[in-house]
Amino acid sequence: MPAYLVPKRSGVHRFAGEQRLPQAIKTPKPSSSDIHCHQTTTALALFRALITQCTSAPAIPDDRRQALTRHIRAQFRKNRELQSPRLLARAFKAGYEAESILHSCTECNDAESRSRVLNLLDQIAPSCRLQKKTRSPPLPAAADTRKPPQPFRRPAPWPGATPVLSRPHLELSGRRHVPKLVNANGFPFLRFKKPQSPYLSRVLRDKIFHRVKIFDRMYAFEGMILQAEREDQWDNIVRDMHGVSAGPTTTIIGRRGARGGAGERTGRIGRGLDDEPSWTAELREGHKDCKSQLHRHTVEASQLAAKMQAIVDREGELAAQERIERKMAKNQARKDRKAREREEGAGAPEDLLRQ
User: Fold this and answer.
1) Considering 13, 63, 78, 253, which has the largest number of Cβ atoms within 10 A of its Cβ?
2) What are the DSSP calls for 216-267, one per residue?
3) Residue 13 host element (H or E)
4) Cα(3)–Cα(41) distance, rounded to whole angstroms?
5) Could you give the dihedral angle defined by the CA atoms of residues 283, 285, 291 and 293, in that order, rounded to the nearest 10 degrees?
């Protein structure tokens, strides 16, 4: 093969190599996740072996054993985030050496291994030994500078406020502001200024919620009326086919009698169509009552809107009249000022001649 040809880039060469070496099976390269899983499993097994050897070593005193256990946990917690193969190899090597020393100290009761363990414990930092933890005193709580929440107060009318329908007032302390007639979802009111009064908002909200409840009740009656009509149809079918108009007579014991005492009374089981109202009678009465309430609210709102519109018109007329009066008073004051200045200017030359 020429020197300028690379064998691994030739498909023919690779195919020939695979045909000549059928037994050479390429092993897949392990992934990083597999390596990490293997390292985690090995570290957990080493940790369990060290803790087991440490707790079962009779030659180590109890206080030293607890200090050694704490040191092992601290070292594993310290090396938990290692990723470098060199550092991992060094940590595993130290762990296996320690496990070998503890094993020889536990199983063989070797004096040399025991002395090495005790020397290692003497070299451990004092913070790793079994000492009573002293907690620092808690910091004093900072003073709460927030204002205490004020109790909820239901919006109420302003004390001494005059009714809206008593307007317009003929005498005011300042300029007259003409209100605006506003429709709040079918309920009229006069808006004099913004922001709106919380009491007015509460009144409008209560009225709207009450009307919504009436609508919901009316729609519920409409759904029940459809079912009641089917019940009336069924009663008519039973009466026409079998002649059943009322239930059989029965005696009910233990109920209140005709004079109000406990005794027996006679009644009928079932529902007759000749002497009793139909299923839809009461429902239609309820539906009619809801419609009459809505109609009454609409009439009252229209009458109130007419009164308020009259107030707006009267306020507008008074505001225009007062505007004209202010303009006339302003013009008159200007004329008086000019006349006074004219008189003062005319008297000035005579004073000079007198001097």
Assistant:
1) 13
2) HHHHHHHHHHHHHHHHHHHHHHHHHHH---SPPEEEEEEEE-TTSSEEEEEE
3) helix 11-20
4) 49
5) -120
- Structure tokens belonging to residue 249: 């007579």
Q: Rounded to an integer, what distance in angstroms lies between the CA atom of residue 3 and that of residue 234?
A: 105
Burial annotation 11-22 (CB, 10 A radius, 16+ → b, else e): eeeeeeeeeeee
Per-residue pLDDT tens listing for the chain (355 residues)? 566 666 556 655 555 555 544 444 455 666 667 776 777 888 888 888 888 877 777 667 777 777 778 888 888 888 888 888 888 888 888 888 888 877 777 776 667 777 777 777 776 645 554 444 556 777 787 777 788 888 877 888 777 778 888 888 888 888 888 999 999 989 999 998 888 888 889 999 999 999 999 999 999 999 999 999 999 898 888 888 887 664 444 333 444 444 444 444 443 334 444 556 788 988 999 999 999 999 999 999 999 999 999 999 999 999 999 999 999 999 999 999 999 888 887 655 555 445 4
186 Cβ contact partners less than 8 Å away, ≥ 6 residues apart: 211, 297, 298, 301
